[in-house]
Amino acid sequence: MTTKSSPQKPEEAQTDSPLHQYYFRSLICFAAAGTLASYIEWGDVQPVYLGTIIFLLLYTYLTYHFTHRLERDKLTKVTRYLSWSDAALVGLVLSLTDFSLLPLTLFLTMIQFNALLTGGLRRWVEDNIAFGMGILASLLVHKPQWVFSSNIEISAASLIGIITYFLVYALYMHQRMRKLTMNQIKLENEQKWHKIRSYKLSRYLPPPVWRAINQGKDHMLQAERKRITVFFSDIKNFSQLSEEMEAEALTELLNHYLTEMSKIITHFGGTIDKFLGDGIMVMFGDSNSKGVKQDCMNCVSMSIAMKKRMKSLQQEWYNQGIKKPLQIRMGINTGYCTVGTFGTSSHLDYTVLGTHVNLASRLESAASPDEILISHETWSLVKEAIMCRDKGEINVKGFSQPVKVYQVADFRKDLGQNQSYFEDRAEGFSMYLDLEKVRNYEKAKVIKALQTAAEKLKDKVIV
Fold this sequence. Notes:
It is a single chain. The chain has twelve helices and twelve strands. By secondary structure, the protein is of the alpha+beta class. α1 packs antiparallel against α2, α1 (18-39) packs parallel to α3 and α1 (18-39) packs antiparallel against α5 (152-202). The chain is rod-shaped. The N and C termini lie far apart (109 Å).
């Protein structure tokens, strides 16, 4: 009988190495051979007894010589058959010793122990059937007297062999459990590092790509045509600003800006395609689409939120010493594009390609500072909720015909009597007021500041 370890199938155990099997099979066979040798009357040795002892001693070596050359998958099946052979040999030996009471008890206990430990209930049934077959086979050469004797010499030989077997097995299992515990600790540490690395890696990949790879569905990232909304933005005259500021300060400012914009993009469910220096490219509808109209609405809502957030950032940066306000311009277009992975076998990029992508980029370039330009198709999807101004047609590079564009003003619900957002700018004057963000306990403070400024302006004689 052989020893098994971790399960390979629900009903089967994975085999140990052939060397480990050799050690335990040797203990079993030596115990069985010693028991049989103690039973023999050496003055009148019967050939069947001597042949069985010789076979038991050769059996361990022959099985090792045969199994250590096998591949792992074949070894599992062969080991199962050898386990039956082990049980059958034990049954044969016990029959030849006329079922001496103590050896019978010990060897039966060993069979049950091995079977349940290495293969569960199925192996227990199989090994016990093999044990019975071994007894039946012994009837062909020997008829037991069924006296259930308890000869001390026979009992001592089997007792020493079986006790040795259980002690060695216990030591072996202790070592395996210790090794398993150490491997588990090592695996837990590797899992922690894997999670940390995975988190770090996730920041460099678009969410659809990351989800697909984690779920083993990266084959679903193949390029396909989808009707999506594409957004582009950049900071006006950022190149000029980069020449005026120190690299460290510029990096901190840019990272702050991109962080704030990314929060807004995530809030509205957009997918960041890439950062182009100070520029941002975002897609809506490439994954987890909520419908073309809702995707488009989310994109325009995001651009309005970005515009408002930029006003508060301008005030923060002004207080930090950046006098010239940073202004963003944005362009949005909706249409059928090719979305998926592009590149080579060694490097792939998840992005979107198509004429409508180029148009969104051109609209962003054509926009004035703090302006959001959208195409006619985008306007047709959001016009019921968003107030837009018709800016007529403009000539766009790469397009033979003029393109009709609209300027996004604000949500219709926030205009007129319900207007909650105010901004204006002139030489020596700048105002940004978002009523939704003013706290109740600061309301009096804001009103007093506006009244004081208005009174000062009224009394001021401007030449």
